[in-house]
Every structure is written in C-alpha cells, then in structure tokens.
From TrEMBL:
Annotated coiled-coil segments of the chain: none
Taxonomic path: Eukaryota, Metazoa, Ecdysozoa, Arthropoda, Crustacea
Annotated source species: Meganyctiphanes norvegica (Northern krill)
Protein name: Protein krueppel
GO biological processes: segmentation
Entries under Gene3D superfamilies matching the protein: Classic Zinc Finger
Family: Belongs to the krueppel C2H2-type zinc-finger protein family.
Segments forming domain C2H2-type: 21-52, 53-80, 81-108, 109-134, 140-167, 168-195, 196-223, 224-251, 252-279, 280-307, 308-332
Record keyword Transcription regulation present: yes
Xref: InterPro entries: Znf_C2H2_sf (IPR036236), Znf_C2H2_type (IPR013087)
C-alpha cells in the first residue's frame, strides 16, 4: 500500500518518472530508474537556484564543480585547448570547436531567405533581422557623426576613425593599428603564415575574411548592394567606400593640414607629401613613388603592358585615363 502511495505522489509531481525512464523536462532517456531520479534532482536544483560551488576569486557561484573549474580559467588564464592549425588557445573545448571553423571554412548555418551562410548561429540570427525588418535599438551613439551601434565595444572601435588613435604597434615595422585583430593579421605578413586556403584554386591567405571575399570571385556572389544606386559589391568595405561617393562623407582627416578624405588609404598616401616618404621603388630604374599605383603605371612603360582595351575597336592602352579619353573623342 505504501509503494502505491509513493508512486502516486511521484506521478503527480511536475518532475514525474515514467516507466520508460524518459525525463519529462528534457526528453532525455536514462538507462535505469535510479539514474533518472538523479537526473531529475539536477532539474530541481536549476529551478531552486541552488549553487553550492563558489568562486574564491569573485562572487560567482555554480550548480556543479565542472562549471566552476571552467570559470576559474578566466582568473588563471589557463587555456588547455590548443588549436593544431595556429597558436591560439582556449579555456573551453566548445570555443576551440567554434574556432576550427575559421580554418575549415565551414559555414553550417544557412539563411532560409537568401543564399548566405554563416559560421556561427549568432551571426545568422543578426542577419535574419534584415529579412524580418526587426528594429533593434542601437543605444551607443557616436558624438561625431550619426552612426549608432548595438555594443559599446563597436562604438569604441568606430571612434578611432575620428580620433585617428592607433594604439597597437607592429614590432617589426612600426605600423600602427586601431584594432588588436588588425595587428595580428598584419604580423602574418612578416611571418609568412597563411592558414586559410581556397578550395577552388591554390591561393592561400593570412586572414579568413580575405579568403571569404576571394571565394566570391569563384561564386560570383555580390551580397552588398548600394541603397543609392544599383551597384553590387563582393566586400562590405568596398560598398562603404562606394557609398561615400553618394554621401560626400570624408571621415579621414590629415592632422598636418586639415585636408579630409573619403578613404583611409588616400589619407595614408597624402601624409607622405608631408613626410617625403616614397616607399614604392621601381626595380628597373630606381624611381620611387609615394603611391603604389604610380609605380604600376611606370612598370607598364618598362614592360609595354596595355591592359585597357576599347570594346568598340582594337585599340589598347597602358592607362585607364587614356582609354576614357579615346572613347570620349572617337565613340561618344
């Protein structure tokens, strides 16, 4: 009689045990009735807020000892899970697994509305807002322009455009960067590391983002569309540069003369006027230039290369401006 009452009490509980040993809370199947009981106790602890494992370094507490051990690595800096492709280390195995996608190029999270795929679920969730039209308030507003950001970290990085702050310095060449990630990518130029290989051709890259952009050459994908005209681009940075043609925005300002530019690369080239620096030297005649495209023009004189061809006649030119002049005079 007592056993019957005990079973009646269990079945009336929200954490009831069924004869098939299936947890009613998460559908997990347990091998024995005892293991199911232990498993249900875990659920009860979650709902009761019971956290017996306290961190000795901060005020955080955890339900089980395993989570406390993982948390302690944030204090000790221990990174037990090492990537065998690069020198990165991680405190949790799940973080290493997520990182490995960078090397494999795997993008297991496809968008159901368009052809885009993503390496992380959070990136897909953020992308889906474009299709759903969901408005997310961006509280972190720039005081210099009208841009706003979801996260304060993104605002801090953006502010470097206005301040020109570049706190990360390369130990090899002295080049400065506004972001630590940009410095790390740059250092690979010196070390020659190229962990990211294209699956369609033999090209290798030091940065995963460069590989992703390169892959669009093979697929023909141009996911970045201009909202002002019908032009499309294979890289978001190219779209941003293009949009400034429409807006007239010139966020890159010279600290020497106050002249402003729409592209960071143009500002860097301009600064060489003040410094007198000419890093681009011809290996044929020794002539040096502050801008790389000027060196390329000179090299065509040496090689005789004429890559700009008129599609109306057979004429070819070494420079694009000469081709444009030819079309204007003879074909317009």
């Amino acid at each position: 009689m007592q056993n019957i009452k005990k079973d009646e009490h269990i079945s009336s509980s929200p954490f009831a045990i069924t004869c098939s040993n299936i947890c009613t809370q998460c559908d997990k199947v347990l091998l024995t009735r005892k293991k199911l009981r232990d498993h249900l106790k875990y659920h009860l602890k979650i709902h009761s807020g019971y956290k017996p494992y306290q961190c000795s370094q901060c005020d955080k507490a955890f339900l089980n000892s395993g989570n406390l051990i993982i948390h302690m690595r944030t204090h000790t800096g221990d990174k037990a899970f090492q990537c065998n492709q690069c020198d990165k280390g991680f405190s949790q195995n799940c973080h290493l697994v997520r990182h490995m996608i960078v090397h494999t190029g795997e993008r297991p999270f496809p968008c159901s509305q368009c052809v885009k795929t993503f390496s992380q679920r959070t990136h897909l969730v953020n992308h889906m807002r474009i299709h759903t039209g969901e408005i997310v308030e961006k509280r972190n507003k720039c005081c210099e322009c009208d841009k706003a950001f979801l996260h304060n970290d993104d605002l801090i990085r953006h502010m470097a455009i206005h301040t020109g702050e570049s706190p990360y310095s390369c130990g090899q060449c002295g080049k400065l960067f506004s972001r630590d990630s940009h410095l790390k990518s740059h250092i690979r130029i010196h070390t020659g590391e190229k962990h990211f290989q294209c699956s369609q051709c033999d090209k290798e890259f030091s940065c995963n983002n460069t590989l992703i952009t390169h892959m669009r050459i093979h697929t023909g994908e141009r996911p970045y569309k201009c909202s002002h005209c019908d032009k499309e681009f294979n890289a978001s940075s190219t779209l941003k540069d293009h949009i400034r043609i429409h807006t007239g925005e010139r966020p890159y300002k010279c600290s020497e003369c106050g002249k402003a530019f729409s592209h960071g690369s143009t500002l860097k080239s301009h600064k060489m006027i003040h410094t007198g620096e000419r890093p681009h030297q011809c290996n044929k005649c020794g002539k040096a230039f502050s801008i790389n495209k000027d060196l390329k023009r000179l090299m065509r004189i040496h090689t005789g290369e004429k890559p700009y061809k008129c599609n109306q006649c057979d004429k070819v030119y070494a420079m694009n401006k000469d081709l444009k002049r030819h079309i204007r005079v003879h074909h317009d």
